[in-house]
Design goal:
The chain has a single domain, classed as Luciferase-like domain (TIM Barrel, Alpha-Beta Barrel), CATH 3.20.20.30. About 35% of the residues lie in helices and about 20% in strands. It has eight helices and ten strands. Strands 1-2-3-4-7-8-9-10 form an eight-stranded parallel barrel, surrounded by six helices. The chain has a two-stranded antiparallel ribbon with strand order 5-6. α3 crosses α4.
Length: about 290
């Protein structure tokens, strides 16, 4: 199991240089991944935020081995060819450390207020077409594509991603919705969310159901990541931490995600209450050690 950090690039984290420093600190103390949210606007969020892809370029330049990415990019509000250029550029800077997270998006203000597609079903269709296009652009071959939402004629993109056949893709989904997990099963990993979970025990039960469902649609011979946004671990009690983590490892969780959202520390995004010292302390104390 690998361990990653997950934080919103808002307010004090809206400076790409700050995010690059935090990512470098995380790498030095042993975290395996550093991921940021991908938003451009939103009624639930502060106005002050940094473009995630500009930030990721600086993060890539200031780290050497930690995996990086945005979780998750609503591909339906992006042009797939622009995303293809951005992802490969950052993949090249990072020497193959980028992971691409995708979903349909759930922040209404990012769609309705900016004239983007507001129908979630149509965004799902756009996501599927966009993913097909993205992988074709990454191939380095000439692209000719005619879909319901996107058309491309005689276009070729180089360079290719560092790794073959392309940048790993994780798909996000809200359980118990089924379609996102059928989509994710055909990619490189899934990032499930369980907003209906009543407590940690219920979340683990839902995770088990999700894993069993997803495995019906994937190739068991191919590597596959399950990214779990875990609860806060008592790192001052290593034996108890081991006890908490092992059931999730047995369920197939390959990445345990530690959230650095202010609300995890008694703060508040909308009211701009950020317990910064507590948040940075979590980074500096390093990830759990799973034996």
């Amino acid at each position: 199991m690998k361990f990653c950090l997950y934080l919103p690039p808002f307010e004090p984290f809206s400076d790409a240089r700050v995010l690059a420093r935090l990512a470098s600190e995380a790498e030095q103390v042993g975290w395996d991944g550093f991921f940021i949210w991908d938003h451009i606007s939103g009624e639930r969020y502060p106005e002050k935020m940094v473009d995630p892809w500009v930030a990721l370029a600086l993060i890539a330049e200031n780290t050497k081995k930690i995996r990086i990415g945005a979780l998750v990019t609503p591909l339906a509000r992006r042009r797939p060819w622009k995303v293809a250029r951005e992802t490969v550029s950052i993949d090249q800077i990072s020497e193959g450390r980028l992971i691409f997270g995708v979903g349909t998006g759930s922040e209404v203000g990012e769609f309705d207020n900016l004239g983007e597609e507001s129908d979630p079903s149509k965004r799902g269709e756009m996501l599927d077409e966009g993913l097909e296009l993205l992988k074709t652009f990454w191939s380095g071959e000439t692209v000719n594509y005619s879909g319901n939402y996107y058309q491309v004629n005689d276009t070729r993109f180089l360079p290719k991603p560092v790794r073959e056949p392309g940048i790993p893709i994780w798909a996000a989904g809200i359980w118990p919705n089924k379609k996102p997990f059928r989509r994710g099963a055909k990619l490189d990993g899934i990032f499930p969310l369980f907003p209906s979970a009543k407590d940690d025990k219920d979340m683990a039960a839902q995770l088990k159901d999700m894993v069993e469902y997803t495995h019906k649609f994937r190739d068991p011979q191919k590597p596959f990541d399950i990214v779990f946004r875990g609860f806060k671990l008592p790192l001052d009690d290593p034996s108890y931490t081991q006890e908490l983590l092992h059931p999730y490892k047995e369920l197939g969780v390959t990445w345990w995600q530690t959230s650095l959202s202010p609300r995890e520390f008694g703060g508040n995004l909308k009211d701009k209450i950020w317990p910064l010292q507590q948040m940075e302390d979590v980074i500096l104390q390093g990830p759990p050690k799973l034996e």
